[in-house]
Amino acid sequence: MAAGASASTPAQAGPLLDYIRNYDLNDYALGVSISWGQSPYATASNSTFAYPYLTSFRHSALTDDWLVLRDGDIGARWVSPGGWEFGAVARVNTLGLGDADPAFVRGLDERQWTLEAGPMIGWRGWPVHVNFKAYAELLGRRDGYPAELSISLPAEHARGWIVPSIDLLYQNQDYNRYYFGVTPAEAISGRPAYDPAASLGWRLKARLGYRIADNWLLSTTVAWESLGDEITASPLVDRDSLWSASIGVAYDVDLFQPRDGPGAKLEPRPFELRLGAFRDQVDTRIVRTAATANASQSIDVEEVFGAAEDSTLLQVDAVYRIGNYHRLHVGHFSIGRRSTATLDDDVEFGDLVIPAGTEVAVRADLSTLVFTYSYSLMRDAQKELGLTFGVHNSTSTVALRAEPIGADASRLRDTLPVIGLHGSVSLGADMHLGARLQIFRMDADRFEGLLNFATLELGRRFGESISVGIGYNYYGMKLTSSNDDLRGRIEVRHQGPVLYLGANF
Questions:
Q1: In 3-state terms, what secondary structure has residue 128?
Q2: Which member of 29, 107, 389, 480 lies 3.0 to 4.6 Å from 489 by CB, making a disulfide possible if both were Cys?
Q3: 271-504: which CATH number, 3.40.50.720, 1.10.1740.110, 2.30.29.30, 2.40.128.90?
Q4: Is residue 235 helix, strand or coil?
Q5: Are 129 and 61 in contact (CB under 8 A)?
């Protein structure tokens, strides 16, 4: 919907953009929720989470609002006059081994939490609503996808709403392999190898919202899920059904001003230069395939070669605003690490075979130049939300030298297009909270790439020109190539807190 709005002619885009920019975000409330749930994995205990959440005093099934907050999803949609619902949503998938017994997880690869996003389509014929969603994984941690078909009967009463539903849950084979499969390398006595197929399960759910006071909302969810046969047959799973529940309280604080509220015409200076110090935690993995063989070996650069896992680097950003809704951004950061290690085991690094006991000199570098253009769907003196398009030019190098055996290097350099979102909100006269998210996916004959970048920051302005802030950055990249300079794959993840100083001109 947002992409269509920005690409349409002015006559077509005007009403839609005005609707988004005049949208009253005070229809939403901020709260705290506690959830409980069972894990499907053997020996894992029930989980309890407390987390902040955003909600509406009316369930999204009962409104035509473009912003969707539903069942852990957040996204955007369009509802047609005939009751059809089209959109896209994202969520956090927290499925994993959790705190299972160490003896149970010994020898198993970690099953990690991840971010998922995908399309949504629904039909809202009264009184029954039908909704379908399918999710792709965003962080490159697994293949496969889950999908859900929900049939619900939403009802509204004087002080809230209730939405009972029955959901059909589909997980394809690659999804089940990651979470419930056991590879031959993971198999031990009592845990045989297992390669599951796709599965189909179902779930009963009830969601309730009740206004306990004018500005307070109590919400709760109760669900019971029957797992598919391919999941229950896994040696990692010891039950055939799961229950979960949550309860939360939210308060509508009326934080947001309308588009034409006080200070709506206030414009910041158009150019900002920012210097940040980034305390980085780096994880680098290389999968090299020798030129004369099909075998490959996965190498953790920090663990095997002793490259530093923590590093402090400088990050430089420049932003130039063009008018009220356009901005250009250029950013750069680089990591350079040098180390020397004595190998505990034999290592095959491409065409280089290094025996245990050899001293190896390692150089691990990553340099990234970012250029993006952003268009703000919503922007006033208090808040901003927009789309981002651009490129990340990244060079990743891991080079080894072992005397007198020789030297070898894995190097990959490419320019990757990205799309994303950016947003910010003022928290008083001088404070602001901001976030950016950028992603990239490509799969071609000789190259496959994945890139994820996210940052969250809290800043304070001093006067008209100077700002300081703190934040947290995440950068994940996985590049695969069959070219001669890299026969294999480089995976780099680095994340950590950042301090910055900015100046506006």
A1: coil
A2: 480
A3: 2.40.128.90
A4: coil
A5: yes
Q: What share of the chain is helix, strand, coil (3-state, %, to 5)?
A: 10, 60, 30
Taking the mean position of all CA atoms in its chain, how far away is CA 323? 30
Report d(CA 120, CA 124) in Å as an integer: 13
Query: 31 is written with which tokens?
Result: 């709260």
One-letter amino acid at 186 equals E
Enumerate the domain spans of the chain. 27-251, 271-504
Cα–Cα distance for residue pair 68/272, rounded to 1 Å: 33
Closest listed residue to residue 56, CA positions, set 281, 194, 207: 207
Q: How far is CA 497 from CA 139, 240, 313, 336, in A?
A: 20, 41, 11, 18
Secondary structure string (H, E, C) spanning 160-184 = EEEEEEEEEEEECHHHHHHHHCECC
Q: 27-251: what CATH class?
A: mainly beta
What tens-digit pLDDT sequence spans the chain (505 residues)? Answer: 344 434 433 444 567 677 677 766 666 778 889 999 999 999 888 888 887 788 888 898 988 888 888 888 999 899 998 899 999 999 989 888 877 787 888 888 888 888 899 999 999 987 899 999 999 998 778 889 999 999 999 999 889 999 999 999 999 999 999 999 999 989 988 899 999 999 999 999 999 999 998 889 999 999 999 999 999 999 999 999 999 999 999 988 766 666 565 544 455 678 999 998 877 777 776 665 544 444 455 677 777 776 666 777 788 999 999 988 899 999 998 877 777 878 777 777 666 677 888 888 878 777 888 999 999 988 877 788 889 999 888 777 777 777 777 666 666 666 778 888 888 888 777 888 899 888 876 655 555 667 788 888 999 988 888 999 999 888 877 766 655 555 556 677 778 888 999 998 8
Strand extents, DSSP E, 444-465: 447-462
Phi, psi (5° rounding) for residue 484? -65, -30
Indicate whether this model's pTM tops 0.90. Answer: no
CB count in 10 Å sphere of residue 3 = 11
